[in-house]
Amino acid sequence: KFSPCGKYIIVATELLSAYIYDFKSGKKVFPDLVHNGRVVYGEISNNGKYAVTASSGKVRVWDLAGWNGESKVRISSLISHNAFIEKAIFSPDSRKVASFSRDSIIKILDVNTGAQLGKDMKHNGFVINVAFSEDSRKLVSVSRDSTAIVWDIFTGKQILPPLRHNGYTGDAEFFADDKYLAVACWDRNISIWDLS
């Protein structure tokens, strides 16, 4: 995946590591981001200071800005799940990470403190994807339980009743200053929800 600045590419691999390359030169620009299992996802924060990687039951946030040329990049924070993690993403403000696993649990990590924000958020089916609001204060999750749920990330509570659909919900995104939500469903429909 490209970094937001477009200069780097982060690559998740089955070789127990993720790698960050300079896009133009193709050279590695940081030491390997090492896990104990295959790495399934990685991305770089909007401010370029951090990288997040997901592997097995662990999410690691790496301090790229604090790297001083030593043999390792320091792990700034860590969050654990009890099941295989599918993905971990940064919020737009680069201060939070959302991760979800195959047990339908979603967690929010405060990047600065390393602490979990709010309580675990849970669907009744497999979570397919999550997305932060533009203001980084809300999260939407979509699931095989055919719902999209909007969460308050600081409490872990639902802001609205589940938005029900006629099939698995595959993706969702906030837009127009978080006033609206677009949800793509496996029944080949896209629903627009007015959140105001």
Summarize the structure.
By secondary structure, this protein is mostly beta strands. The chain has strands spanning 8-12, 17-22, 33-34, 39-44, 50-55, 58-63, 75-80, 85-90, 96-101, 105-110, 116-122, 127-132, 138-143, 147-152, 157-158, 163-164, 169-175, 180-185, 190-194.
What does this structure look like?
The structure is a single chain. By secondary structure, this protein is mainly beta. It is about 0% helix and about 50% strand. It has no helices and 19 strands. The strands form 5 sheets. Strands 12, 13, 14, 15 and 16 form a 5-stranded antiparallel β-sheet that branches. A 4-stranded antiparallel β-sheet has the order 4-5-6-7, with no helix packed on it. Strands 8-9-10-11 form a 4-stranded antiparallel β-sheet, with no helix packed on it. The two termini are about 35 Å apart.
Features:
globular, mainly beta, 4-stranded antiparallel β-sheet, 5-stranded antiparallel β-sheet
Question: Strand pairing plus helix content: what structural class?
Answer: mainly beta
Q: Per the principal axes of the C-alpha atoms, what is the gross shape?
A: globular
Question: SSE string, helix = H, strand = E?
Answer: EEEEEEEEEEEEEEEEEEE
Question: Between the first and last Cα atoms, what is the distance in angstroms?
Answer: 33 Å
Largest sheet: 5 strands, antiparallel
- By DSSP (H or I, 4+ residues per run), the number of helices equals 0
Mean pLDDT equals: 94
Radius of gyration over all CA atoms, rounded? 17 Å
Question: SSE layout and pairings?
Answer:
Layout: E1 8-12, E2 17-22, E3 33-34, E4 39-44, E5 50-55, E6 58-63, E7 75-80, E8 85-90, E9 96-101, E10 105-110, E11 116-122, E12 127-132, E13 138-143, E14 147-152, E15 157-158, E16 163-164, E17 169-175, E18 180-185, E19 190-194
Antiparallel strand pairs: 1-2, 2-3, 4-5, 5-6, 6-7, 8-9, 9-10, 10-11, 12-13, 13-14, 14-15, 14-16, 17-18, 18-19
